[in-house]
């Protein structure tokens, strides 16, 4: 399976993401600059964390207008897995690929620590190797991760099981303690915690690796004969 | 030439933790009467004469980029300014 890690000016988790896929997952991966307009050769798209365009205007607001995002939208429409982590999640929200928006953390602080997440839905291409209700340790590092959406949207997210990860206890004030959601179709996941920073016990936790392995498993089942 | 002033604020229904912190700070300074503070953004856009539909364009850029309609409202003022 071949992944693209999209790099914007100001991305700073791109190399961690690259390392997670190449060395820990053992799959092919390229770093792809934001001006690319074709992602056809990739089976999965990864939008890394960081501060694209210095978080000018709003986090992710400038990045979502960049050239590569049209190709990311096409990949999402084609059903390919698209994962946005942290700033990547914010870009997916700004681009409308996921519903809602991010506000400043409730306590106004940049929060950088490992938190406990609950796997709310394991019937997705990103979480099939987890059990529903699993508690996993994944680091967060953000100042604007306070997820917000209107009443109609939160009702819909719950009805469709689009809330994939929640914080086991309140971290940043997010509505319903949301840490990660998918689109309706289930092939676009945005999450504030960093699974790519939890792919080896040496890093303090390997709980994030199963997320990447789930993506590969899903891809093999649909693309490889006798998988 | 037109000068456009754009004000972007969080929607009434959205909590503004930053505004709340400032309100509490004012209150501890002794300004008890300041009931609420909302923090927003102010932007100035300069349009040249090539733009024919200034108001339409302003609305468009506010909705596409300058504000995020999920959490923010915008309003604007258009002023005619002299050619330089």
TrEMBL record, chain B:
One GO location term (cellular component): cytoplasm
Annotated catalysed reactions: N(2)-formyl-N(1)-(5-phospho-beta-D-ribosyl)glycinamide + L-glutamine + ATP + H2O = 2-formamido-N(1)-(5-O-phospho-beta-D-ribosyl)acetamidine + L-glutamate + ADP + phosphate + H(+)
EC number: 6.3.5.3
Keyword presence, Ligase: yes
Pathway assignment: Purine metabolism; IMP biosynthesis via de novo pathway; 5-amino-1-(5-phospho-D-ribosyl)imidazole from N(2)-formyl-N(1)-(5-phospho-D-ribosyl)glycinamide: step 1/2
Subcellular locations according to the entry: Cytoplasm
GO biological process: 'de novo' IMP biosynthetic process
Domain of life: Bacteria
Gene Ontology MF annotations: ATP binding; phosphoribosylformylglycinamidine synthase activity
Tagged with keyword S-adenosyl-L-methionine: no
Main location: cytoplasm
Similarity field: Belongs to the PurS family.
Function: Part of the phosphoribosylformylglycinamidine synthase complex involved in the purines biosynthetic pathway. Catalyzes the ATP-dependent conversion of formylglycinamide ribonucleotide (FGAR) and glutamine to yield formylglycinamidine ribonucleotide (FGAM) and glutamate. The FGAM synthase complex is composed of three subunits. PurQ produces an ammonia molecule by converting glutamine to glutamate. PurL transfers the ammonia molecule to FGAR to form FGAM in an ATP-dependent manner.
UniProt name for this protein: Phosphoribosylformylglycinamidine synthase subunit PurS
Species annotation: Domibacillus enclensis
């Amino acid at each position: 399976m071949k992944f693209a890690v999209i790099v914007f000016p100001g991305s700073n988790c791109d190399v961690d993401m690259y390392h997670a896929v190449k060395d820990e997952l053992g799959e092919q991966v390229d770093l792809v600059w934001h001006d690319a307009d074709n992602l056809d050769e990739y089976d999965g798209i990864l939008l890394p964390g960081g501060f694209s365009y210095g978080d000018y205007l709003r986090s992710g607001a400038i990045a979502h207008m960049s050239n590569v995002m049209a190709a990311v939208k096409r990949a999402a429409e084609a059903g390919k897995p698209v994962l946005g982590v942290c700033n990547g999640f914010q870009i997916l929200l700004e681009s409308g690929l996921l519903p809602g928006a991010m506000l400043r953390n409730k306590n106004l602080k940049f929060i950088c620590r490992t938190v406990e997440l609950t796997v709310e839905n394991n019937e997705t291409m990103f979480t099939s190797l987890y059990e529903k209700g699993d508690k996993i340790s994944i680091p967060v590092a953000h100042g604007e991760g306070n997820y917000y959406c209107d009443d109609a949207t939160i009702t819909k997210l719950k009805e469709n099981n689009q809330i994939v990860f929640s914080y086991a206890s309140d971290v940043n004030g997010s509505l319903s303690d949301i840490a990660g959601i998918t689109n309706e179709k289930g092939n676009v996941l945005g999450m504030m915690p960093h699974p790519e920073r939890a792919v080896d016990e040496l890093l303090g936790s390997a709980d994030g690796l199963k997320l990447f392995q789930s993506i590969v498993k899903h891809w093999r089942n649909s693309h490889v004969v006798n998988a | 030439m037109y000068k456009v002033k754009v004000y972007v604020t969080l929607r009434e229904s959205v909590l503004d933790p930053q505004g709340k912190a400032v309100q509490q700070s004012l209150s501890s300074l002794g300004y008890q009467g300041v009931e609420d503070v909302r923090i927003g953004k102010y932007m100035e856009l300069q349009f040249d004469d090539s733009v024919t539909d200034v108001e339409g364009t302003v609305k468009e850029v506010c909705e596409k980029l300058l504000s995020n309609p999920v959490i923010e409202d915008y309003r604007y003022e258009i002023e005619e300014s002299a050619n330089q």
